[in-house]
Amino acid sequence: MTHNPILITGGAGFIGSHLTDALLAKGYAVRVLDDLSTGKRSNLPLDNAKIELIEGDVADAQVVAQAMSGCQAVVHLAAVASVQASVDDPVRTHQSNFIGTLNVCEAMRQASVKRVVFASSAAVYGNNGEGHPIDEETPKAPLTPYASDKLASEYYLDFYRREHALEPVIFRFFNIFGPRQDPSSPYSGVISIFSERAQKGLPITVFGDGEQTRDFVYVEDLVKVLVQAVETPQVKPGAINVGMNKATSLNQMLEALAEVLGQIPPVSYSEARSGDIRHSRANNQRLVERFTMPEQTLMKVGLDRLLKNLSVK
Ligand code: NAD
Ligand code: UD1
């Protein structure tokens, strides 16, 4: 291990801050580049001498180049994570979600940094899964600017792999949940919104009939895979699904929440979101072959930890 830092773009956010903790615990130095649009300083242990926070925008090539200087590897997480936000404001999200990736690739080429771990998304498959486990070769069908930017980012990373010997590890995350996922906006992840509202006794709104399914992954399980991707000596081409091969409907998730909390407030159902995916479930064979999978944290265990974290805030 060299003393050079690992750059985490979006490191002050939900996933990025858990990854920061894990890398610091392993003795790495971490440099975070984050514009704090949804991330928070308070997510980071800034009193640790091994962490540095650069407040800046990945859409600014100069800032990215400065942040890249002297790093040994990059985990590129900075993006507008909300699919719905990309539908409402495609221009702004494109700056972060695509131009940001291109800037990371260019800065890596210039600084001769090879390894990049990238957060792509199950959203690239659109509705092609039709309820079956989706493997990586399933035709892509991006339904939203968010999904289009993620898929374009994957193609650019592969271009830089072929032309400039970058070593991209491209993960297609399914739905990640856990403590620190910010529940404060309508654009937030569904589990964080429902958990906070349930804990406060506020009514819950499901968009659609609640029978849409997602493959939920607890954040600490994902982080164990991300750390391996930073460290693995060899990278094979091709994107990798990060899911548990388990479909949970929103209605089932609400039942689990009710079991953990004892009861939940009234639930109402309204119109489904435009561009919303109906069913999403990962075939995770490639992930299992290439990485050591942690034992899955069960939904109720994850919900319990998330709720405890909310209640101390
Ligand atoms: P998050 O919103 O908590 O984290 C994103 C971070 O990026 C935040 O700290 C935000 O301030 C920062 N950021 C946004 N735009 C930026 C910009 N232009 N410049 C610098 N920083 C910027 O969301 P998250 O759930 O932790 O998502 C992390 C990554 O994982 C994103 O790329 C997201 O698309 C991807 N992803 C998330 C999920 C999920 O279920 N949470 C699933 C698939 C993919
Ligand atoms: C999520 C991630 C996205 C990721 C994708 C991968 C967030 C904010 N989004 O998108 O980054 O690429 O998984 O699969 O982390 N819903 C409600 N009520 C609410 C909020 C949401 O019913 O108050 C519904 C939505 O309509 C949707 C489901 O819950 O059907 C999940 O929504 P959301 O958590 O926003 O996630 P995805 O759109 O799946």
From TrEMBL:
<dbReference type="InterPro" id="IPR001509">
    <property type="entry name" value="Epimerase_deHydtase"/>
</dbReference>
<protein>
    <submittedName>
        <fullName>NAD-dependent epimerase/dehydratase family protein</fullName>
    </submittedName>
</protein>
<dbReference type="InterPro" id="IPR036291">
    <property type="entry name" value="NAD(P)-bd_dom_sf"/>
</dbReference>
<dbReference type="InterPro" id="IPR050177">
    <property type="entry name" value="Lipid_A_modif_metabolic_enz"/>
</dbReference>
<feature type="domain" description="NAD-dependent epimerase/dehydratase">
    <location>
        <begin position="6"/>
        <end position="243"/>
    </location>
</feature>
<dbReference type="Pfam" id="PF01370">
    <property type="entry name" value="Epimerase"/>
</dbReference>
